[in-house]
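Table S2 (continued). Query chain:
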Amino acid sequence: MNRQISFVHLTSKIWQTLVAVLGVTFGVSMYIFMNSFMNGVNNTQDSLTFSTLAHVRIYNDENTSTYDPVVEFVKPGTLINIRNKKSIQYTDGIKNTSQVISLVEKQPGVTGIAPQLNFSVFFRNGAKKINGNISGVDVVNENRLFAIGDKVISGRWKDLTYRKSGIILGKDLAKNLGVKLNDNVNILTSDGISKNLPVEGIVETSVKGIDRSQAYVNIVTARQILGKNFDFSSDIQINIADRDKTGELINQLKPLIPYQIESWQTANQQLVAASQLRNITAIAVSLTILLVAGFGIYNIMNMTINEKIKEIAILKAMGFSGKDVKNIFLTQAVIIGVVGSITGILFGYGISSLVNEVPFRIAGLTTLPIFYQPVDFIMATVFGTATTIFAGYLPSRKASKIDPVIIIRG
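Corresponding output:
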């Protein structure tokens, strides 16, 4: 009987019911759209970031010494005048790369390791001279970490394995130098070492700063150019299964490795902050929309009760209890919440799909990014229904306390 009365209330003023359903639909659909869009933006940002950034980096930057001969050899109270003090670099790079890699490989969760030898050079072609960087890489493992072979638009990444004297240039760097595949490019290091290298490929990473200044050579060639031993590197890049758990790996490696170990979160705190702020903004906007929709439903339910106050009084005079009256209006709220949530999910999915087709040709993208997560659909349904039930509970509680005698007497 209670359900039949609820159904009559909902269908007797269909436009009023439709407005309440549309309020929930709008809130739920915006929740799904906002979160799917932010997920897409975050995934795109992560994809661009981790195309060149490893989860953990090992490097040797300990080029200062605390040793002070003045303190050791000069008697206290002696007046000393030191002019133009010089700093001496005691260590340079990682000289035992194989040993460090062997230690890292034994740690759980490690999915890839690649040594690098990075250094600055001038790229020269005729009268053109451009400042940039060269990464000497382990060709196979570098590709395993960053899938850089997929970004080579001319030539082949794996050719660096067999043609160790070759070089792969960033797209804009090659364009600015005016060189193409199989041309030669001259490099000049800070120590004055000059070498001609044949161009074996052109790479496009979608990160302009890298495409304008970065080149890759086999790490064997890089060691030969710099005159370093066969086991020397400047960085060791590490990827792990869960990139958010870099702290565990760093704690395991610190007692074993006498070099600096840095997580991507420490090196790129602005990325972490930006990602968290985007998520907070999306959730705040979505919940605000749901709350506004809930407030609208509260007003509609309250108005319905005021309009039907005499009917409620008659129902209570006929023997309906306060609990029955509360159930009648709560049932209406549940129906509005469930129907609004279902249509909101469908509408939100439709909006997101349309946005995903909007052209957006920047940084390797072709359309605006959208990424669906099942948890967003579940949360939207739960919040949409819960908000509606709460919005309907207060008016139904008010209706349950109506005194029929006072109402009928007028």
